């Protein structure tokens, strides 16, 4: 307002205006840094590192179904070696596939609580030891059943850990494409497994099929198998130990811990948590009741039944193929392995559909 002497009088600010006006003497810094409005990225892993992680998980997931398929061309040979019936030998396939179907519930629930990397390592060791024993122990039917169960238990981890790893490093809108890559490994197992099994059994012995699967650790060498196969399997184990970081978000958050590190890291069995538990809460410890409660959801039950019928039909036909082709058509074991390429490709085509990132579940 104007005063009589011509000077302008500025009214003092009210209490409300003083509260809304920030102080000047350094108080602006106390209010925090300027807000940019941007949120931290879902994953701090570089695109190259994410591709490397998906590649390692895909390669590791290849060996579980491979262990189921590599065994099929050798079924008539095993029947003669163990002096038993085709029904009994076929039962070793059933127990392996049964464990391979159920064990991912156990591995997946533990991985959401304790981390991905320790379970990758432990399950891989179980898988390797089971294959070494299958290749080295004298022929014993009871041992064959027990070790096939152990083998399936160790091989089943990646089927569930892989999906968890994808969720850790890939934002939801891109997960369908990422899952299609990770599923490539498990679906190539039934395609290439019988082909490798027929070639190895036909040229060496049925024991070398398990020896090949056990050559995931570089100190293990079987000279009668192609050196390239040994190098490939050893490389998967080395990559997993030295290039696969912990990805569980309740332990490393969005992975910013590794954002400035090299692709090659020091092997750590278990990464201590480095995030705020309030922002990345850890799920409760897994229980058997919690796993059973998953069956309350109809979509889960429908998907499980659909896959169960698919694989049941696939293996019901495939366990009979070697006997009929060898006895009725005079095929060799190597030729039987080649025949499996046809049903293997059909099975993979039914499971691997075109990914659609826009359709989220």
Beta percentage is under 5%
The span between the termini is 65 Å
Number of strands: 0
From the spread of the alpha carbons, the general shape counts as elongated
Fraction of residues in helices? 55-70%
* Individual helix count: 19
**Main β-sheet description:** none
Q: pLDDT below 50 for ≥5 consecutive residues: which ranges?
A: 1-10, 14-36, 216-232, 348-356
**What radius of gyration results from the CA coordinates?**
28 Å
The residue-averaged pLDDT reads: 78
Given the helix and strand composition, which structural class is it?
mainly alpha
Structure, briefly:
This protein is mainly α and 361 residues long. The chain contains 19 helices and no strands.
Describe this structure as you would to a colleague:
The protein is mainly alpha-helical. Helix content is 63%, strand content 0%. Helix 6 runs parallel beside helix 8, helix 6 (86-114) runs parallel beside helix 9 and helix 7 runs antiparallel to helix 8 (141-155). 34% of the residues are buried. Mean pLDDT is 78; it is low at 1-10, 14-36, 216-232 and 348-356.
């Amino acid at each position: 307002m104007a005063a009589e002497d011509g000077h302008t009088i500025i009214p003092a600010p009210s209490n409300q205006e003083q509260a809304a006006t920030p102080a000047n003497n350094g108080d602006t810094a106390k209010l925090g840094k300027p807000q940019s409005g941007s949120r931290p990225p879902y994953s701090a892993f570089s695109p190259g590192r994410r591709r490397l992680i998906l590649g390692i998980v895909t390669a590791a997931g290849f060996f579980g179904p491979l262990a189921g398929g590599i065994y099929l061309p050798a079924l008539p040979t095993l029947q003669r070696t163990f002096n038993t019936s085709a029904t009994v030998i076929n039962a070793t396939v059933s127990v392996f596939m049964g464990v391979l179907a159920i064990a991912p519930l156990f591995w997946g629930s533990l991985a959401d609580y304790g981390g991905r990397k320790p379970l990758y390592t432990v399950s891989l060791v179980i898988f390797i030891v089971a294959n070494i024993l299958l290749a080295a122990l004298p022929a014993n039917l009871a041992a064959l059943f027990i070790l096939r169960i152990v083998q399936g238990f160790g091989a089943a981890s990646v089927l569930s850990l892989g999906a968890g790893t994808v969720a850790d490093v890939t934002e939801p809108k891109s997960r369908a494409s990422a899952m299609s890559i990770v599923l490539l490994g498990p679906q190539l197992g039934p395609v290439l497994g019988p082909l490798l099994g027929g070639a190895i059994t036909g040229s060496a012995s049925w024991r070398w099929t398990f020896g090949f699967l056990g050559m995931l650790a570089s100190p293990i060498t079987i000279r009668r198998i192609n050196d390239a196969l040994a190098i490939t399997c050893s490389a998967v184990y080395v990559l997993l130990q030295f290039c696969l970081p912990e990805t569980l978000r309740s332990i490393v958050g969005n992975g910013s811990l590794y954002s400035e590190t090299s692709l090659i890291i020091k092997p750590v069995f278990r990464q201590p948590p480095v995030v705020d538990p309030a922002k990345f809460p850890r799920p409760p410890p897994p229980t058997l009741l919690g796993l059973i409660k998953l069956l309350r959801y109809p979509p889960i039950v429908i998907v499980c039944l659909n896959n169960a019928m698919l694989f049941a039909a696939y293996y019901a036909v495939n366990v009979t193929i070697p006997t009929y082709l060898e006895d009725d058509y005079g095929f060799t074991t190597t030729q039987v392995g080649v025949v499996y390429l046809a049903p293997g490709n059909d099975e993979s085509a039914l499971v691997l559909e075109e990914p659609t990132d826009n359709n989220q579940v």
